[in-house]
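Q: What structure does this chain adopt?
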Amino acid sequence: MKRFLIITTTLLIQMATFAQGVDEASLFSQTYYQGTAKSLGMGNAMGAVGGDITSVCINPAGMGIYRSSELTLSCNLLDNQMSSSYYGHNASGNKFRFSIPNLGFVYSKERSNYKALRYTQFGVGLTRTNDFNLHTDAMGINPSSSMIDNYLSHMYGYRVEELQKAFPYDIYPAWCTYLIDLDNDGYNSPVPQGNIWQGQDCDFKGRSEVWTFAGSANFFDKLFIGISIDLAHNKRFGTKVFKESRVEGTETSFNQWSFTEDLSSTGWGGNAKVGFIYHATPWFRFGAAFHSPTIYAFSETWQTKTESEINYTNFTHISPESHYEYTFIQPLKCVGSLAFVVGQQGMVSLDVEYTNYGSARFNASDFDYDPTNESIKENLGHTANFRLGTEWYAGGTYLRFGTAYYGSPFGFGQTGGSVKKASCGVSVPVSNRTSLDFAYELSHGKTFTTLYDAGDLGIESITHSQYRHILLTTLKMRF
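A:
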């Protein structure tokens, strides 16, 4: 449990801490494809299936299945429902959003019907790989500590005139707003040490997505190989508000205070993927793919605002705006896939994806990230994701079902941060060359967040439970 409380992000819950560390390493390394309705309906278990632009993100050899060209466009509605529990008090938040998670084009050319090389393909596609739209709200009565206790523990040995340079974004603003005082016994605060309302409100938007440029080939209609170059984009912005207020009936000059952090973060990166699919028999096929590490260049701005009310007098301090740049290396991935075909009636497919979150790394020319990277290596670990999907032909339509389990970023054997998914879908023909696909996905995850390090005073974690609903439709046109 201690490892679960160290970081704030999981598969589905993205809490911003505005400092590169274990939490951002986990957040930026997680991948949840929102591409076509076919792929989503089958749980994204597409590694050995192919024939879909989203499958190219999982295994570029999947594009080798195409024998005709295709254009796809997808739209979705996302409903992100969050409930939080803190010291016995429950709260909820909700985020609703419309987006275009997928756009793709594949050009297929027949080379021969008797030589080894039968078809070649080239494709380009846009696929959403994570969604950062989130709203959470948590509040409870902490019986033993305040965030100010955490501030005071860091101030030991610092003179007043050194605070602005040493702590310009949090502790110095607290000093300027009279949340921290100085007397003959040292630093102190009017904020009670416990028995205080305390909580956090987060509101974020953003996404990660990838532009895929892929080429593939079909040999003997049995062996399919592919390679892709990906241009990855990451955008996240929003606010996090920490707040404390006195419990009614408490005798203190303190009324309330809040600490607001504003973040805007943009990153661009790239990687390469290579894979194959082999049709061993008419009823059995298998494949494998390798995803190289993705190297991101991030640009980030950050600003804080501290507000207090002491003796019913209001004080405010806004920090300078900080802008900095850094590099993030997302871990490599390996994917193994199987598919079983039942005549012309349907198929069942399975993907197993391996990654090591502990190998994520931050770098910068003007900052030493070695301690941060050691912390990432210590707290995150190896994990596996499992995706199972099926598709069946029924009366002119295709029915699809899928399920998935994404392992904890803390490593094998851990459950905190894992996510379960279930999905279904249907394909409706519009004409001989056009179809409309529909899919629905429900996912659930639970995580634990600590607001600060309270030392020996102790602090309960916030328990977050998230349900995410996605409705997706895809228009496919073949020519």
